């Protein structure tokens, strides 16, 4: 049986992580050459906070430091929002408290910019590691982990700086890479514009993204009022494999409850995805110096056939009295969008995955994620397999709706599974669903805010994969 990392520490969670981390706070100099007092204080955790190269950072070292450092990468923060301050060192306070109690040092950066700031995040996280080495000493091993955008940053750090890390835990990560992710997002936005917005809401070259967002939401809300509009919303959702499941506290709709599935896809689009389709894409275009996405050569008949939402779309079109073939023909006949080559090069660099793993990687994803769909895991698994490194990768799934809606117990169980792999040199049966649920449940009700829901799962194909690092065409 897997050695449990956290079995006796539930009582420590009575106090908040803030109380733990605030003990002995030290605002350290950002001078990389300086060295503060020792980071380990026998009286309790010591927290260092400051700024490195324009990024806020937090380091917390417990008095019983076990010489392992966990480097956390946080998720997406929209441009125009203040940088995270203090910089987070974990995705939730309960997990942070457990890890500190068990002797793990925690570190994290705000990154020096918000948005799709992978370029800055890679620099800032490595600068933080260098600062930790100079200030606190070299860890015996460093493990990066992160969620959402932090998941792609975690996987990118592993690809770019493999010798700095012992293993990695990307959670709900954008593991199809930048180019593939934004191409797939373009397909849904393209269908929405052609079939519902009458070509009036351009999905690229966004001069006024706020205005485009409001216009798109108005069209979306109006379309949701009719059977024909709902069918076309379902088609645009299907081209991105959006799940028909939205709330983490609600059961998954029945396989043939297409009305409920479409309603949930509408909620994903209206409350989450359109923010990224317009505001997020505008940020990407600014960084990349143009539009990095294209749909030249895409056959939307084939895309729908490959979609996990195909049967829903067919049923809703039939119920609405619409001709699905005619709408797909309209998409295939519409003028296509070409990418700006320099922008593609930027997004390919920040970041496209080549599948080359030098260390063990464990990924974690919910099955009902409508922002970073679970098919991202299939895209990552494919490139790792093509590179011949499948032995180093394991992927585990939680049956739940929502983006990154893991319980603390599920995250801690995943992390301990990775640590066991590092300790033993083999995966064994450590990712068996029954064992994962047993381990998570054993952590108690405080960490299991919902019943543990690991399950055996294989994602459908990611619809717009892009992993060829050289010689691509667009």
Strand content: 5-15%
How far the N terminus sits from the C terminus, by CA atoms, comes to 50 Å
What's the tally of helices? 15
Name the helicity range: 40-55%
CATH topology of the largest domain: Rossmann fold
Give unreliable regions as ranges. 1-37, 469-474
Outline the structure in words.
By secondary structure, the chain is of the alpha/beta class. The chain folds into two domains: 10-175 and 353-455, 3-Layer(aba) Sandwich (Rossmann fold), CATH 3.40.50.1820; 178-340, no CATH class. The protein contains 15 helices and ten strands. The protein has helices spanning 17-21, 93-101, 118-136, 149-160, 177-195, 209-223, 227-238, 258-288, 300-306, 310-320, 324-333, 341-349, 375-387, 408-424, 433-441, and strands at residues 25-27, 46-52, 55-61, 68-73, 105-109, 141-147, 169-171, 361-368, 393-401, 454-455. The strands form two sheets. Strands 1-2-3-5-4-6-7 form a seven-stranded mixed β-sheet, sandwiched between helices. Helix 13 links the parallel strand 8 (361-368) and strand 9. The N and C termini lie far apart (50 Å). Residues 1-37 and 469-474 have low confidence and may be disordered.
